[in-house]
Amino acid sequence: MAAESINKKGMLVAGGWVLPSPSRKSLEVKNPYSGEVVGVLPVATAADVEEAVSAAERALPVLGKLPAHRRSAILEETAKRIEALGEELARTITLESGKPIKDARGEVGRAVQTFRFAAGEALRIHGETVPMDAHKAGEGRFGFWMRVPVGIVGAITPFNFPLNLVAHKVAPAIAAGCPVVLKPASQTPLTAVRLGEILLESGLPEVALNIVFGGGGTVGEWIVGHPKIAKISFTGSPPVGRRILERAGLKRVTMELGSSSAVVLDEDADLEKALPRCVLGGFAQAGQSCVSVQRIFAHERIYARVCESLVRAVERLRVGDPLRDDTDVGPMIAEAEAARAQAWIEEAVGQGAEKRLGGTREGAVLAPTVLVGANNGMKVMKHEIFAPVVAIAPFKTFDEALGLVNDSIYGLQAGVFTRDVGKAFRAIRELNVGGIMINDVPTYRVDHQPYGGVKESGLGREGPRFAVEEMTTIKMVVFNL
Predict the structure, then answer these.
(1) Contact of 414 with 436, CB cutoff 8 Å
(2) Which of 93, 316, 394, 429 has its CA 20 to 30 A from that of 421?
(3) What is the CATH classification number for the domain harbouring 399?
(4) Residue of 278, 290, 384, 462 marked catalytic
(5) What is the per-residue pLDDT across 9-66, written as a single tens digit (0 to 9) for each?
(6) Does residue 453 lie within any of the structural domains?
(7) Helix, strand or coil for residue 69?
(8) Is residue 380 one of the residues assigned to a domain?
(9) DSSP state of 149
(10) What is the DSSP letter of 220?
(11) Is 315 one of the annotated active-site residues of the chain?
């Protein structure tokens, strides 16, 4: 099977594969649905990380001097190979993450596009001339600026998109000419290993990508604090993000830190369009996405209909084995996470919310849950639940709804369903989020858009063009003629 073939590899350090051995700590990768071990990998030591950074340092002049068309060709070839290996990669994603196979196939398709967008960006990195004589002291001089690689990129990725979120860090770095030291999530490292193989097969210089495994408190800290790493790209939780900022010093940092994403359903919303999107946005991938629909604010005139219709739609979702083609909701990443989310649900019920559907659990599988009568003071709305749970609350006026969306420590993306273009533009002006989806859910994302948030949702933007900008630095050149 796919995971078995991948498990023949290990860490990718300095162009070689470091295999598990009795003398090393090992990392067991388990299928969240069955509990079966699907891979065993070695855990990195401090010496491994040091060797990986040294290899990346050697790769800097190699990758930086590769012509743009060669970097682009490597990325394009990677996209082709990912596409050709689509079913193998999708199965690996499902085996290690529990993501339904149909969603895993969608992730593979997105990763193909991410690499292709990055291949295009590699050809568009450029600078500009500067009109030096606009200043009296600039007479007789010719100036221009250019973009150059910032240096080694340390990439730390989460479990929920083990292929595409790795792609969003690795592909722009290669486009920019930056070597990478990658630490994928310990729950889902096998997909990253396979991607590493694909990149090498596609012509990437062998020391330009190093992949190490281990905990955030050890391997992650070593990467973040290493003086030779110039840029950190991280996706994860706000507490870890704050720790990275403390440790990173003067490094450049991009981080996506989550959300409690909201949808506003105004009284004139097209519910035939909105409700299916809310179901997809709230329950795909068991709600384990930073832009999953978590809070729904429905106008009081349509609130009862929204609650009833949403429950009926969620009842039709098929829950179970993620390898089945017809499964809509599989397990969460671990039983402990499912138990945590279930505790949040019961706490909300104790505080006055009504559990209309779900809330039960079998191991790591949490039944899709709909809560009504919730409010922003409850943990299920205040914090990121990262589970198949949606909470619905009513509002009286559109301004009140916008205030409820903004009443959050997060600000990643939001969705607003309205037929009133004036209200749509009010939402665009007033919502303090990184992305606003009009007549769609916050879960919507295409991989070349700028993606990121404000407040505790993070710093900087992803999307190949925007990541390349953050992975390059400007060098100014002046000729005294």
Answers:
(1) yes
(2) 394
(3) 3.40.309.10
(4) 290
(5) 799 999 999 999 999 999 999 999 999 999 999 999 999 999 999 999 999 999 989 9
(6) no
(7) helix
(8) yes
(9) E
(10) I
(11) no
